[in-house]
Amino acid sequence: MPKKRARVGIKGRVQGVCFRAETQYEARRLGICGWVRNLRDGSVEAVFEGEESDVEMMIQWCTHGPIGARVKDVSVDWEDYQEEFDRFSVTF
Predict the structure, then answer these.
(1) Is 38 annotated as catalytic?
(2) What is the pLDDT of residues 1-45, one digit of tens each?
(3) Which is the catalytic residue, given 5, 20, 29, 70?
(4) How far apart are CA 89 and CA 28, in angstroms?
(5) What pTM was estimated for this model as a whole?
């Protein structure tokens, strides 16, 4: 299975609802590497690297997020796989 990298932007009510922590949990469960962070505009940004099917599952998860989130929009920019990360973390 090919490896993929996606930069994902999530808009809506996605801060203050444990979105980052739950994204980290889900990414680690799927074996995804990368990071997630809050942005000043109230959105969340993440980079996912891993098996293509796992990255696609992670993006699908972002369309609803954790309980309490109200996702309005998810944007995905596919980038060249870089094997840059060895784990998934929350960044600031």
Answers:
(1) yes
(2) 899 999 999 999 999 999 999 999 999 999 999 999 999 999 999
(3) 20
(4) 9
(5) 0.96
